[in-house]
Amino acid sequence: METVLIVEDDRAYARATTNWLVKNGINARYVLSVDSAKEFLDNHDVDLVLSDFRLDNGNGMELLEWMNTHGYRIPFLIMTGYGDIPGAVEAIKKGAVDYLPKPVQTEKVLGIIRKALERKRRDGNTKQRFYTSKSPLALRLQEHIRLVAPMDTLAVLIRGASGTGKEYVARQIHVLSGRSDASFIAVDCGVLPKELAASELFGHVKGAFTGATENKTGMFAAADHGTLFLDEVGNLNAEVQRALLRALQ
Fold it and tell me: Is the torsion defined by CA of 218, 223, 225, 229 positive or negative?
C-alpha cells in the first residue's frame, strides 16, 4: 500500500491528519521534525510527503532541498498558514507539487493527494530512475537540471563530447518537467536519409512528392507537448537545418 509521510511538529495536528487520511483509505505515518523525516525516508518506502512549512527545528524547504540533493523524486506537498504563503510559493519553484493552506482535511486536498499519488504510480520508482554520482561536479549538474526542468520557456543548451551523456541529461530534464506525461523522442539525425530527413522531422501529406502514398506525422508533431531531442544536427544538410531553425524560432 502507498504511504504518505506527514511532517508536522504539532503532534495533535499530525495525528488528526494521519487519522483523516487513513479513514479515506490512504496509509499515512507522521514524524515531528526534519531530522526524523530524513531518517524515515532513508529507512522506509514513501510515496508522498506532506510537510508543514514551519517546523521547530527547520522548515519544509530544508527537507525538500535535502530530498532533491539525495535523489528522492517523491511528490512533496507543503502545508502552510497564511503568513507562510510566500515561502510555500518558493517551495513550488524548487519542486513542490502544491501548497495547501491549513486546515488540510478537505475533499479538495484529498483529491490533490490522490492525483499526486497516481502520477507517481505512473512514473515508477521512489528514487530517481537515473544513476548519479556524488562528485561535486555531478551534484552541480543535478542542481542545474532540477532548476531548468520546470521552466518551459527557457532555452537549454547541452554541450559535451561524444559519449558524455547529453541524451541522459535531456531525459532527466524531461522526467522532471511538466512534460513528463508526454513523449520523449530521441532522433539521431546522423542516420536519417538525406532525402527523407525533412519528411521524418516535419511530416508530409499524401502526394507531396513521388512516393508519398499516405499522410505521415513528423517527429515534431509526434512529440507534441513532450520533448524532441535532436542529436548530431550538424549531419543534416543545410536546407533541412534552415527549416529546423525556422521551426525552432
Answer: negative
d(CA 181, CA 226): 8
* Rounded Cα distance, 56 and 244, in Å: 54
Give the pLDDT confidence score for residue 126 in this predicted structure.
40
More confident residue, 161 or 11: 11
Q: How far apart are CA 151 and CA 241, in angstroms?
A: 26
CA distance 46 to 2: 7
Cell of 185: 523522442
Quickly list H helices, the chain. 11-23, 34-43, 60-69, 85-93, 107-123, 136-148, 166-175, 197-202, 219-222, 238-248
Query: Three cell numbers at 139?
Result: 551534484
Compute φ and ψ for 178, nearest 5 degrees.
-70, -5
Write down the pTM of the prediction: 0.52
Domains in the chain: boundaries: 3-123, 136-248
**127 pLDDT higher than 50:** no
E strand spans, 53-195: 54-55, 58-59, 76-80, 98-101, 184-188
Q: Domain 3-123: which topology?
A: Rossmann fold (3.40.50)
3-state secondary structure of 103: coil
- pLDDT tens digit sequence for 180-209: 777 788 887 877 777 778 888 888 788 777
Are domains 3-123 and 136-248 of this chain identical in fold?
yes
CATH number given to 136-248:
3.40.50.300
Lowest mean per-residue pLDDT among 28-42, 101-115, 216-230: 216-230
